[in-house]
Every structure is written in C-alpha cells, then in structure tokens.
C-alpha cells in the first residue's frame, strides 16, 4: 500500500495496486505501480515499483432481485410495456444491461475528484481523478446558475416564458434569464421554500402555512392559506391545485373565473405523517408520505381508493410513465407499480440502489426512448433506460440533488446545496448526434415554432426570421410565447 500525502485539509490518498513489479522480489512492494512514475517525477533507479499500468481487472457485480389524461410522462413510441399488470408476455422491466435478470452491466463510472467538486483541486490537469460533473455519453453540462445560499428545493420553467425560477431554503425565489444565464431578479419570501411548480401562466410556491401564487402574464399575486406547517409538494390535475402539507393532509383549491382567485375545494386526510410527494396521472392523484405509504386518490370523487405499503422508508418521489407508477424511497429502492385485472396497483419490479433515492424525473432521449433520472442521498444522480434500467450515466454534485425539472428540447435542470453556503441550479442537455455549440435561447412566435421540431434544430430548417440569429450564435432551445 502506497500513501501519498496531498497536504489538502490534512487528508491522505491511499491507493492499492495489483500486479508484480519487474525485477522486484515478493515483498510488500510487489504488484504495485509507482505513484511517482504516475505523476511523472520518479527519480529512483532502480525503482522497486512498476513503471507501467496493469491490465484492468473486471469483477462481476451481484444481481439485484426484482419483484414479481393527467400529467403523465409518456414515451411517444410506446404502445405500453407488458399491458395491464405487466401481462401480455414476460415483463421487460429490468431486462437488459444493468437490469435484474443477470444481463451484462456497464462498468459504473468512477467518481470524480472530490476536491474538484469543492472547487479547490491543486493538481489541475495532472490530477489522476476525473474533473467532471457528469460521466455519460448522453448528457453534457451547460452551465451552473449560482446565487442561492442554501439548498435548492424547487425549479420551474413556466410555459411561454424565457425565465427560469428556482426556490431555496434560503427564503428566496430567483428568476434566471434563459438567454444569458444571469439572475434577473430576486423575491425575498422571508421563510423556507418547500417546493415550486408552474402550470400555464401560474407559478406556485409552497411555504410554511401557505401557498404563494403569481400569474406571470398579469403579474397578479395571491396567498392561499390553510396548510399547517411546511408545504412539501404541489400538483395540478382536473382543474385543481393540490398541496401536500406537513400535518399529513392534502389541500385542494379550484380557480374561480368569477372572483379571479383560487377557492378551497377539499381537504384529503389519511396519511399519518407529512406528505412529501405528489403526482397526477390518468385521473388519479398519488401521494407519498413519511409514513412509508403511497395513497391513490380518485380525482372525480377525491376519495382514497388504495393504500400502497410496500416501501419500508419515506416515499420521497412518485412519477407516472404510461400505465405505470414509479416510486422511490429512502429504503434504497425504486418500485414499478402496474394495474391488475381488478384495477388495483401491485409491484411489478423493484430496482435496488446502494443509497436512498430522493427524487425522480423522466424524459425521452434523442430517439424518443424513455430515460429515468433519479438522485440519491450520496450526492449523485443516475440515468437509466426504461424499462431495462440499463445505466446511461451519472451526475455528481456537491450535495444532494433535491429538485429536478425537465424542460423542452432535451433540457433539464438539477438543484442542490453545498457545504460552502452556495447553492447551484445546474443546466444539462442531452448530447446530439451532430456537433454544435449551444449558447443562446431564441424566443419566437407559436406559429414560427410549429415549423421547427424541438430538439432537431438545424440551420436549413430555420426560417429567414431566425436564421441571422442562428448564424451568429447557434441555438437548441426554442421558447414559445
């Protein structure tokens, strides 16, 4: 074992090497690569250590065992995977590289230099550890948006707007200009922000004991009272706004055009502890709670029709994809639920992680294939193909990624917090098959945008109105107004 003292924070790097040094005896130095040779400064002759790299040693990872209209994230090319309850043939969940059926797995990406992530690696290009925030052939980092002083808890990209909004536990809402990446304004809420979503022109922000509402078109502002404690999650469905509260209730409001305001509609009770996640899909509201259960609510009657109790930890996030429900928990699992013949939900596949899972997001790739993005409480996020759960790459951050927001044209955002009292909203995009520099956002009319497929922007497809802008600065993202 060779020990190299790097002098940073008094830490030491320890490296184990395999193999046998040329001409060396079978001693404590055998089978090790010279760390000074790696750094290009070995002056020992003869040197008892190897001056060459060893062949890569591959190991076989253990298999993970699997289980037997609304705002739904859908795969455009999917005709359904396995039918209701996973029927119609063998289940495709977890089958493929990285799945639970024992298929070949991709080698997991090495973790980048932790000093680079903290912003103070003194080795620079000579560092033996990767200097990168993501390790994937499918995504690239655009830019970090820095400004919040505590963890980012919500990100919203309102339709028809060229502004991105982020909320944080530092009590502020920041507005970012999508063209320049600069902060265009700060709203001081005076309290921790628990969540944030946008729906049409509306921006909703969950705070303790209330929900703040802004209309981005009319600049109207209102406060919805009724929650007790922090509002951890928000969702919109069937013309209702739902808020998940700290006291275990889910409150609902309906917009009244007559009074131009949101009026209380219902209070859904059933969870024993705080509700921390909501999603709407197929006329159902799904709620995840700290009581380790998921409740299924009928949007027509606002009654609980089923309680799912398979998780053994806090249900941190729920996501709809086609006819499936995906849920993640601090119990280190992602569960896939499918409807049975009777209409009730049952677990059809369980994906095991090595750390607790705290957030889920879904998007199609450049070939319209579904990709799952999940963040873990070890400050990483994994990308998986669905339904195989094949590894597509990893994202690394300074602290846990608490917020994920999917945008148009292959764009998505992640929000985290750092030990340096500096929080970051990070912008990623999926890599294309053709090289292009992406530095600007162009705002065009709805009619103009309808003739330009999102995510496949090429110069020959652009009209004369946008072509001069593109020639001076290539674009990828089109914001429709």
TrEMBL record:
<dbReference type="InterPro" id="IPR001680">
    <property type="entry name" value="WD40_rpt"/>
</dbReference>
<keyword id="KW-0853">WD repeat</keyword>
<feature type="repeat" description="WD">
    <location>
        <begin position="268"/>
        <end position="307"/>
    </location>
</feature>
<protein>
    <recommendedName>
        <fullName>C3H1-type domain-containing protein</fullName>
    </recommendedName>
</protein>
<feature type="domain" description="C3H1-type">
    <location>
        <begin position="28"/>
        <end position="54"/>
    </location>
</feature>
<feature type="zinc finger region" description="C3H1-type">
    <location>
        <begin position="28"/>
        <end position="54"/>
    </location>
</feature>
<dbReference type="InterPro" id="IPR041367">
    <property type="entry name" value="Znf-CCCH_4"/>
</dbReference>
<dbReference type="Pfam" id="PF18044">
    <property type="entry name" value="zf-CCCH_4"/>
</dbReference>
<feature type="region of interest" description="Disordered">
    <location>
        <begin position="59"/>
        <end position="106"/>
    </location>
</feature>
<feature type="domain" description="C3H1-type">
    <location>
        <begin position="107"/>
        <end position="134"/>
    </location>
</feature>
<keyword id="KW-0863">Zinc-finger</keyword>
<dbReference type="InterPro" id="IPR044715">
    <property type="entry name" value="WDR86-like"/>
</dbReference>
<dbReference type="Pfam" id="PF00400">
    <property type="entry name" value="WD40"/>
</dbReference>
<feature type="zinc finger region" description="C3H1-type">
    <location>
        <begin position="107"/>
        <end position="134"/>
    </location>
</feature>
<keyword id="KW-0862">Zinc</keyword>
<feature type="repeat" description="WD">
    <location>
        <begin position="145"/>
        <end position="186"/>
    </location>
</feature>
<dbReference type="InterPro" id="IPR019775">
    <property type="entry name" value="WD40_repeat_CS"/>
</dbReference>
<keyword id="KW-0479">Metal-binding</keyword>
<dbReference type="GO" id="GO:0008270">
    <property type="term" value="F:zinc ion binding"/>
</dbReference>
<dbReference type="InterPro" id="IPR000571">
    <property type="entry name" value="Znf_CCCH"/>
</dbReference>
<feature type="compositionally biased region" description="Gly residues">
    <location>
        <begin position="79"/>
        <end position="102"/>
    </location>
</feature>
């Amino acid at each position: 074992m060779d020990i190299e003292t790097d002098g940073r924070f008094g830490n030491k790097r320890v490296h184990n090497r395999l193999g046998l040094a040329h001409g060396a005896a079978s001693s404590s130095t055998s089978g090790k690569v010279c760390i000074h040779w790696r750094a290009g400064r070995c002056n020992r002759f003869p040197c008892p250590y190897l001056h060459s790299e060893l062949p890569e040693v591959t190991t076989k990872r253990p298999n993970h065992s699997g289980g037997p209209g609304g705002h739904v994230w859908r795969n455009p090319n999917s005709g359904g995977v396995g039918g209701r309850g996973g029927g119609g043939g063998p289940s495709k969940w977890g089958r493929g590289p990285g799945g639970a059926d024992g298929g070949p797995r991709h080698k997991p990406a090495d973790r980048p230099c932790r000093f680079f992530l903290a912003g103070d690696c003194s080795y620079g290009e000579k560092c033996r550890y990767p200097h990168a925030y993501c390790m994937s052939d499918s995504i690239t980092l655009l830019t970090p948006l820095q400004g919040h002083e505590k963890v980012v808890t919500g990100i919203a990209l309102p339709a028809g707007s060229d502004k991105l909004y982020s909320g944080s536990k530092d009590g502020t809402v920041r507005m970012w200009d999508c063209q320049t990446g600069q902060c265009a304004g700060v709203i001081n809420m005076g309290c921790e922000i628990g969540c944030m979503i946008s729906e049409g022109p509306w921006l909703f922000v969950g705070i303790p004991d209330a929900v703040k509402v802004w209309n981005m078109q009319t600049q109207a502002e209102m406060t919805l009272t009724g929650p007790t404690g922090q509002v951890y999650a928000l969702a919109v469905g069937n013309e209702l706004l739902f808020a998940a509260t700290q006291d275990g209730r889910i409150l609902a409001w309906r917009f009244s055009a007559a009074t131009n305001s949101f009026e209380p509609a219902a209070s859904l009770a059933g969870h024993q502890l705080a509700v921390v996640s909501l999603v709407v899909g197929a006329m159902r509201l799904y709620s995840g709670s700290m009581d380790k259960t998921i409740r299924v609510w009928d949007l027509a009657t606002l009654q609980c029709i089923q309680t799912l109790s398979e998780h053994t930890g806090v249900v941190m996030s729920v996501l709809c994809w086609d006819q499936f429900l995906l849920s993640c928990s601090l119990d280190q699992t992602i569960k896939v639920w499918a409807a049975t013949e009777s209409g009730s939900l049952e677990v059809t596949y369980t994906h095991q992680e090595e750390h607790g899972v705290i957030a889920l997001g879904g998007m199609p790739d450049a070939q319209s294939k579904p990709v799952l993005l999940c963040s873990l409480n070890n400050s990483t996020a994994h990308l998986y193909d669905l339904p195989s759960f094949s590894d597509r790459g990893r994202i690394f951050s300074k602290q846990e990624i608490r917020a994920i927001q999917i945008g148009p044209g292959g764009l998505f955002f992640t929000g985290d917090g750092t030990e340096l009292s500096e929080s970051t909203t990070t912008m990623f995009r999926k890599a294309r098959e053709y090289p292009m520099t992406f530095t600007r956002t162009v705002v065009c009319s709805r009619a103009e945008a309808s003739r330009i497929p999102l995510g496949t922007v090429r110069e020959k497809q652009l009209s004369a109105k946008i072509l001069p802008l593109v020639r001076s600065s290539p674009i990828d993202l089109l914001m429709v107004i």
